[in-house]
């Protein structure tokens, strides 16, 4: 039975806009099924639309007003006029869309904590009476800091670190929770714990904290609807009281300290009837309510528990817990019996030296949690407002070595839907892929970060710019990244430049060196383009267009008619040939990279303009792309028909960004690229910029086997060298752990940085053979290219239309391939089978076999 499954574009209970887009996947469709039209029912109204679109279709009705709720369902028709049943209804509810919807004020504590150190966790509470049983209740809530809210002792949500990190000065996200089941007629209480988080905590180094302000704040509005009409109640303004709770300090970099001896004083603090006489009345804090926006990204949650693989003793006598996996989250201490006042200290690190935690790579981040036991019974505790990047935890203060189950790790990150999988006959490549998945998990903690452990954990633009295509395959990160792009636009500089990190905690009045560093700032254009290509999201292009345009205009103004060599650049960051302490000093000329990215961003912007109907802008930027391509060629393509900068990255970028004058030039560059790779013994010779491109450049120029040799190299530097050294995440440096077994002593050495894992996108498209042929995989290209001695591979992707998958096997010279094509899409099969021609097939399962033809 053909039945559409309807979803709205946001994963939260309320929509941040009045006209959310809708998508559906058609279940039970017969092979070759194609949509001819759809009918959307929104409340009483129906809208009949003749269109094949089924992903992110526009809201057909007048936009919902704040709080308005409507039942939505869809049914679909194919070309033969066969109509499906109505989908199960989905409730679409708008959040608070206007500043004027707020009656609550932001409140804070009159008490001060030490302004030079991480603050305690503040507990805010108030009680309220409801005369009638609610039929619905919503809690709209946000904070300067990170919060956890409870009603009568029950957490309103399992979300962590809410409201997340955004461009706070312009966008402060509001979470809306359905709390109907938590409130009742009679007396109720709300309690909210608020910690420093990104607002007041350390960000970007030892002496840098409280970037946004010294005061923690809370804004909450509980709206209850009863049979006799809506009443707004429980707003933060008056009647709230506050105190520093049993968590003495909480900070993302530093960790958390909890005094369980004090916890007894707070039993039932968020329940009605608790005695808060000693608590202080809250004070109002000024807040421009125009900054309040509905949260538009996925919540951070605990997504997995990892039980340690081993517990042993360190040479210095502590317990050492090995999780067997470098991960991001924290440890839950369980079943602890200790004398009152015993301090149990947990420290975390990614690697060991001499059997002890190696904490140098953490720089000033302490990653240390302390639990001071109450001494009452068996105690269990997990920090609430911190996370760490670690494979190992050191535990001190317990009477004996903990059982593995007493120190299980809780993995925490933005809870996105996993969508993409990869398998192949080479276990090292499967592990490389798995490492990229873990690095994505660890660095998608509300914002896309460089690393999750040391004193950075910042939204470095270059890192996500190169990793975005991989990320969009592994997880449905569309709303995660589009929310981040809203922050990018909000934090964009007045001259159009893009801060190195987004959100940008720095005081905006401090000037930047430049906001157009190539490959970093270009995230402003590339990331929205990737969201369009991978999710079919045209809307994001329309929304980001002013930001994209302002950036590109700033970039060309800074470069002038020739390319400007005086601008600050990161170059091919972490090129293995660069000195360890000067990663920007790449062999590839930073101006070559800057010019290439300028052309790239100009042409992506031209495409975006065309797609949103701005043809003359599109022509303008398209022409400029051509002009700068010419300038680039004049400068970097010598008269001998060779690049003047003879590096792997230079060739890779020239080929993949289409910068060369004609096919002969491309062939020659491919040839030279192959020679460079061969003569380097297939060791990697690229940094952040060249690494995602080199395998594509080789593949496009007929040098597939060289790409495989690079990918399968296991000596340092290479992708698989870390895997052979037991890596379970992608490392920042090719030699974060050096071949002599020493941790790289350079001041910047992380073991969890996704950027160099961007090659995984090539693995999906070329080894697995699945890529989008039309945006959002509405048409897919199935073109696996076996090599490197692999005998099988498979990829599977949950697209917006349903599952698309490819699985191939090579048995001697016999090649077979199974393809699954989602309903309402088509696939072009371009298979390495002798005599086979390209063919287009409709949805369903297809199997092709034949003699392998490379
Ligand atoms: C970060 C990077 C980032 C780089 C740019 C580093 O400290 O960890 O991944 O892109 O700085 O300079």
Set down the secondary structure blueprint.
Blueprint: E1 3-8, E2 22-27, E3 35-42, E4 45-49, E5 69-78, E6 90-93, E7 106-108, E8 122-130, E9 134-144, E10 146-151, E11 154-155, E12 172-178, E13 186-195, H1 197-200, E14 217-226, E15 229-233, E16 241-244, E17 247-251, E18 255-259, H2 260-263, E19 280-281, E20 283-285, E21 292-294, E22 300-306, E23 310-313, E24 319-331, E25 333-336, E26 343-349, E27 351-353, E28 356-358, E29 368-372, E30 379-381, E31 388-396, E32 409-414, E33 417-418, E34 420-424, H3 427-443, E35 444-445, E36 447-448, H4 461-474, E37 475-476, H5 478-490, H6 523-535, H7 538-559, H8 590-611, H9 615-636, H10 648-656, H11 663-679, H12 694-700, H13 704-712, H14 720-724, H15 760-768, E38 770-774, E39 779-782, E40 792-799, E41 802-811, E42 814-821, E43 826-829, E44 839-841, E45 844-851
Helix pairs in contact: 4-6, 4-15, 5-6, 5-7, 6-7, 7-8, 8-9, 10-11, 10-12, 12-13
* Low-confidence parts: none
Which geometry do the CA atoms define?
Answer: globular
The molecules bound to the chains, other than polymers, are: beta-D-glucopyranose
What structural class should be given to the helix and strand makeup?
A: alpha+beta
What would you report as the Rg, rounded to the nearest angstrom? 28 Å
Question: What's the total count of β strands?
Answer: 45
Helical residue percent?
10-25%
Mean pLDDT: 96
């Amino acid at each position: 039975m053909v039945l559409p499954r309807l979803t709205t574009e946001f994963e939260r209970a309320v929509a941040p806009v009045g006209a959310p887009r809708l998508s559906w996947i058609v279940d039970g469709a017969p092979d070759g099924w194609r949509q001819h039209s759809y009918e959307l029912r929104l409340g009483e109204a129906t809208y009949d639309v003749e269109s094949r679109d089924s992903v992110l279709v526009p809201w057909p009705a007048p936009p919902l007003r704040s709080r308005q709720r409507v039942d939505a369902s869809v049914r679909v028709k194919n070309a033969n006029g066969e109509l499906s049943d109505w989908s199960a209804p989905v409730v679409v509810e708008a959040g608070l869309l206007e500043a004027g919807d707020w009656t609550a004020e932001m409140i804070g504590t009159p008490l001060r904590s030490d302004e030079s150190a991480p603050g305690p966790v503040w507990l805010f509470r108030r009680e309220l009476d409801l005369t009638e049983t609610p039929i619905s209740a919503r809690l709209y809530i946000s904070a300067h800091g990170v919060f956890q809210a409870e009603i009568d002792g029950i957490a309103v949500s399992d979300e962590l670190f809410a409201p997340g990190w955004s461009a706070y000065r312009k966008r402060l996200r509001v979470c809306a929770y359905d709390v109907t089941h938590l409130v009742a007629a009679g007396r109720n209480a709300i309690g909210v714990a608020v910690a420093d988080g990104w607002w007041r905590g350390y960000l970007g180094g030892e002496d840098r904290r409280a970037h946004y302000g010294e005061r923690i704040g809370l804004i909450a509005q509980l709206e209850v609807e009863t049979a006799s009409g809506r009443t707004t109640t429980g707003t933060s303004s008056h009647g709230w009281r506050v105190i520093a709770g049993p968590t003495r300090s909480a900070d993302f970099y530093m960790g958390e300290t909890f005094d369980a001896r004090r916890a007894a004083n707070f039993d039932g603090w968020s329940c009605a009837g608790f005695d808060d006489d000693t608590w202080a009345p809250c004070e109002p804090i000024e807040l421009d309510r125009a900054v309040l926006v509905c949260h538009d990204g996925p919540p951070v949650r605990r997504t997995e528990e990892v039980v340690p693989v081993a517990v042993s003793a360190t040479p210095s006598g502590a317990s050492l817990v090995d999780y067997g996996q470098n991960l991001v989250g924290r440890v839950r201490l369980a079943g602890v019996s200790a004398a009152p006042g015993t301090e149990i200290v947990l420290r975390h690190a990614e690697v060991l030296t001499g059997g002890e935690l190696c904490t140098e790579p953490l720089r000033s981040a302490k990653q240390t949690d302390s639990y001071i036991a109450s001494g009452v019974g068996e105690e269990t505790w997990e920090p609430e407002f911190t996370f760490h990047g670690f494979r190992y935890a050191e535990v001190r203060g317990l009477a004996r070595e903990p059982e593995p189950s007493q120190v299980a790790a809780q993995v925490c990150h933005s809870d996105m839907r996993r969508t993409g999988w990869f398998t192949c006959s080479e276990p090292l490549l499967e592990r490389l892929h798995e490492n990229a998945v873990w690095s994505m998990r660890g660095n998608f903690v509300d914002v896309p970060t460089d690393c999750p452990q040391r004193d950075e954990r910042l939204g470095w633009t270059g890192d996500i710019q190169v990793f975005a295509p991989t990320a969009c395959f592994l997880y449905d990160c569309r709303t995660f990244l589009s929310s981040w792009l809203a922050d990018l636009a909000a934090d964009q500089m007045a001259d159009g430049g893009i801060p190195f990190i987004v959100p940008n905690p720095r005081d905006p009045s401090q000037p930047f060196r430049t906001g157009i560093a190539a490959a970093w700032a270009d995230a402003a254009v590339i990331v929205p383009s990737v969201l369009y290509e991978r999710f079919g999201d045209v809307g994001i292009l329309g929304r980001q267009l002013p930001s994209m345009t302002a950036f590109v205009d700033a970039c060309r103004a800074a470069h002038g008619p020739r390319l400007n060599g005086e601008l600050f650049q990161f170059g091919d960051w972490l090129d293995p040939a660069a000195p360890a302490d000067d990663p920007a000093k790449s062999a590839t000329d930073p101006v070559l990279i800057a010019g290439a990215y300028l052309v790239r961003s100009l042409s992506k912007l031209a495409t975006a303009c065309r797609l949103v109907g701005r043809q003359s802008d599109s022509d303008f930027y398209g022409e400029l792309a051509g002009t700068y391509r010419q300038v680039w060629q004049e400068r970097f393509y010598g008269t001998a028909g060779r690049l003047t900068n003879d590096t792997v990255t230079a060739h890779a970028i020239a080929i993949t960004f289409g910068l060369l004058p004609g096919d002969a030039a491309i062939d020659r560059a491919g040839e030279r690229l192959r020679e460079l790779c061969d003569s380097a013994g297939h060791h990697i010779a690229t940094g952040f910029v060249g690494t995602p491109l080199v395998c594509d450049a080789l593949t496009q120029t007929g040098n597939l086997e060289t790409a495989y040799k690079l990918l399968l190299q296991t000596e340092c530097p290479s992708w698989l060298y870390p895997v052979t050294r037991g890596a379970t995440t992608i490392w920042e440096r090719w030699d974060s752990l050096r071949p002599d077994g020493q941790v790289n002593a350079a001041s910047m050495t992380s073991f969890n940085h996704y950027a160099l894992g961007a090659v995984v996108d090539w693995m999906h498209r070329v080894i697995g053979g699945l890529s989008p042929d039309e945006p959002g995989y509405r048409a897919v290209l199935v073109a696996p290219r076996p090599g490197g001695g692999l005998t099988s591979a498979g990829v599977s992707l949950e697209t917006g239309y349903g599952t698309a998958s490819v699985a191939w096997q090579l048995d001697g010279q016999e090649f077979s391939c199974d393809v699954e094509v989602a309903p309402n899409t088509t696939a072009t099969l371009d298979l390495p089978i002798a005599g086979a021609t390209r063919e287009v097939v409709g949805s369903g399962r297809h199997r092709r076999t034949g003699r392998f033809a490379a």
